[in-house]
Amino acid sequence: MSVSTTGPDPVGISGPLHGVASLEDPPPTRANRAVRAPRRSGPAGSKPLISRFTPYLFLVGAVGLLLLLTYLPAANMIWYSFTDWNGLGRIENVVGFDNYVEVFTNPRIFSVFGVSLYYFVGAFVQMALALYFATLLSFSTKFSNFFRGVIFFPYLINGVAIGFVFLYLFQPDGTLDTVLSWFGLSDPPQWLGDASIANYSLAGTSVWRYTGLNFVLFLGAIQSIPGDLYEAAELDGASRWQQFTNIIFPGIRRIIGLSFILAVAGALSVFEIPFIMTGGANGTATFVIQTLQTAFSYRQVGLASAMAVVLLAIVLVVTWIQRKLFPDEKVDLT
Amino acid sequence: MASRKAIVGLAAVAAATLLLTSCAAGGTDDSGDSGEVNGDITFLTNRTDLETDGTWDEYVAEFEEKYPDAMVKVEAITNYEDDVKTRLSTPNGYGDVLLIPNGVSPDQYADFFEPLGDAADLADTYQFLAPKTVDGTQYGLALGGNANGVLYNTEVFADAGITDLPTTPEEFLTDLEAIKAKGVTPLYTNYKDGWPLGGQWTNIIGAVTGDPTAQTVMAHDPAPWTEGTDIYALDSLLFDAVNQGLTEADPLTTNWEQSKGDFATGKIGAMVLGSWAISQFQAAATDAGADPSVVGFMPFPTNLEGQQYATVAGDYFLGVNKNSSNKATAEAWMNWLIEDSGFTDTQGMISAIKAADLPENLSGLSESGTELLEIAAAPAGEESLFSDTADLSQVDVWGNIYRQKLIDVARGQADGDKKSFFAQLNEQWGAAVDELAE
């Protein structure tokens, strides 16, 4: 772009010259016509049709796709949740709120939320780790760019690939067991086969994957804090810990709040890691896996849609409660 | 002004939506059905391996030699069940000839598939018609059939000193114990892959009681997990085997492809699978440098006054798309595949043609005097009752979820014991039976 504007002009200061020229003799661009048109024809309402539509034409593509691919399917799902459709053929019966009653009265459906607790706790571990590393690497550290890359890298890997990698890691006599045996731990548990450990293994995998995302969010926020604050703090003799509690933490509170919402929503709707690694067997089924099984293994698409709507409602409510409890205060560091 | 803006915006969006959907709808609307065998058809199959090794190309070439004006395009799909189930929603989206996905319930066949004739007439020539018969009309023909039972490694059994094959669950467990003593995994469940825990077991229903209508009986039974039924015998054996440590150590990390090689090389004693698996396991044995004859097949270890039964049932059924614009060619291809291609012979499956001989790999069954039991058609109006009960009760007898849970209970990784777990299954199943009977 810059080549084409500066290229033909032999003089370096082409920009201002053009600006002056255009003031005297405005080229007939569309914008100029739009401004001048009302002056010619009087009342403001009668702009040429095309210019009135211009903003909408720009919007049509994006909004159209959004409606078609997000809101239309979501509306469809809400409609299915009031039927007993089995996923194929015609919708035969509209059953009203029966599916919702089933979701809330069948103990087998709601009990799986217990599994989400593992991921919820995992999310806190993940945020603590991310915050620790983000703080550490925001100060001038040797090889800090390298370490930033290393920590962010897992987030870039496809979730399915991560599932397979960790599946091999957790296999009996797999990588993890081999490494442990070097340290004399010769009788490791079955990381996925033992129901009392499986969920920790899966939550650990999830932490490994998502720490990078939290880390980048935190790091970005920390770096947007003006450097002179640290300077002033150092002059006043503040320690690193005091800098953290008084500058960094309040400075990135918003981002921490956002991460918290993401963590809750994420913990409630964990899917791909347990689905790839265990298929939801051995007590690791999450709510989303159960929804999927209801829709496609039990062919109760109506009930599954109701479960999905309920999950959406729960996430919205949790977010609302979080906003009420921790209102978005304006951060003032000065 | 604001409202007009909104209307204009909505109109524009609607126009864009219309444009997008009309693109999708503007498919082919070829000339009507001429009744002659010519033109293009598409065939959907799950056998990607036969696409890779060129078998489909050979078949198509042979077919096109017989019908020079016809053109067959074969589309092999890895994730067949799910992909095709989704594609069924588009009238022209599921080819002309296809394997009927198991997820389509019998009362929906008429919505998707062309009727192929009266079941009573077809029964003179074909077997395995029952599952795709609705109200006496046939909607699919089996590409071939399988016997259901247990695959076992003959060498492993011989090494463990087993001379006579087990004919009761107790004998089978004792034999597995002897195999375990040799350091071999006696019975492999394929828990992680899941599907080998579904139909491979449920298809055996009928062999224990010698009753070809056992599935229908179960669909009416409010408490089928009670001693004396087929499903009790099956699930009970699985439970006991797992409970006594006679299956793989860590079920969560099983691997189907790997298990074929492990079986061939004598690391696994037995697996509950249909006879379709024999040719695959023999191939795996050859690849591993073992003798293909190590792959043996026996009926489910049970007998009724000394008589053993093995259920036989159709594999995937071929159907013709109701919306196909070239039904004559589609039916010609389907019939050619079943009758003239020699597909069942090469795959070691039982031919759907009644007059044909049993495949060689099932000779063991005839030697031991096992009676083959073809699963009977459900009575009119109850064609989908068995699968509907499974869906409603969320006891997925055709899937793997409840048997995985059963294995978890058996190995002490989930709460409960055999009695409480079977009681819970009965409760769920019974409630669904009641609800559907209303």
From TrEMBL, chain A:
Region Disordered, annotated ranges: 1-46
GO cellular component assignments: plasma membrane
Pfam family, one: BPD_transp_1
Entry keyword Translocase: no
Keyword Transmembrane: yes
Keywords, comma-separated and alphabetical: Cell membrane, Membrane, Transmembrane, Transmembrane helix, Transport
ABC transmembrane type-1 domain span: 112-322
A biological process term (GO) from this entry: transmembrane transport
PROSITE patterns: ABC_TM1 (PS50928)
Membrane topology listed for this record: Multi-pass membrane protein
TM segment ranges: 56-80, 117-139, 151-170, 255-277, 297-321
Family: Belongs to the binding-protein-dependent transport system permease family.
The protein, known as: Sugar ABC transporter permease
Organism: Agromyces fucosus
